[in-house]
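stage 2 :: seqdesign
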């Protein structure tokens, strides 16, 4: 396969994401690469004496549009297989007025099959101890009543989530994939994803 700007083969690898990281005295970069031969590949490399060995790879900028479509399909497929995009207890939310508006079922004491997930919010365990934070799912039921439950009690509509993914841009999808694979913080939560849900939730 060839493009007027960039020539590539079945085995040509493209870097589609590079993210620098630092923890204490360790510095490293996380990579997501793609080729027709291997599909999506993940790797990380530590800095050696302050510098990384050059990877000398093509990037998304060099990638022809027909290949970007294949990357998009591969990213969405991998997100679907991971399951984290359907698992609210892995999401880090935003403010109380952040509206995800995703249809959901709620299990447990406040079980309901006709509800809407509004957001995943951070609530202090003790209002006087703001450093102690618990994430809760803000729910609105069919009677317009609002309540909070543990995020692991929420089962979101897969159909709605898949529709949202179809509206997301390639770079946005890659960002979510990076967070799902490499994680944010010690709990491997995903941070950007709820923001994109809110961005596209009202798209037709």
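stage 2 :: out
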């Amino acid at each position: 396969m060839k493009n007027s700007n960039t020539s590539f083969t079945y085995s040509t690898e493209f870097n589609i994401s590079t993210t620098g990281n630092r923890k204490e005295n360790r510095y490293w970069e996380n990579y997501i690469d793609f080729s027709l031969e291997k599909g999506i590949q993940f790797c990380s490399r530590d800095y050696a004496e302050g510098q990384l060995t050059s990877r000398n790879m093509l990037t998304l900028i060099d990638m022809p549009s027909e290949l970007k479509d294949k990357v998009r399909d591969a990213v969405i497929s991998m997100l679907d297989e991971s399951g984290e995009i359907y698992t609210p207890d892995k999401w880090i939310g935003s403010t109380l007025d952040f509206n995800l508006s995703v249809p959901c079922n709620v299990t447990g004491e406040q079980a309901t099959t006709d509800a809407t997930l509004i957001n995943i919010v951070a609530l202090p365990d003790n209002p006087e101890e703001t450093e102690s934070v618990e994430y809760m799912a803000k729910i609105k039921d069919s009677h317009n009543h609002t309540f909070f439950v543990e995020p692991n009690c929420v089962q979101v509509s897969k159909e709605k989530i898949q529709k949202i993914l179809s509206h997301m841009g390639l770079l946005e999808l890659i960002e979510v994939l990076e967070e799902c694979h490499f994680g944010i913080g010690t709990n491997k939560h995903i941070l950007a994803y709820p923001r994109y849900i809110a961005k596209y939730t009202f798209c037709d």
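stage 3 :: structure notes
- The mean pLDDT is 87.
- The longest helix spans residues 65-82.
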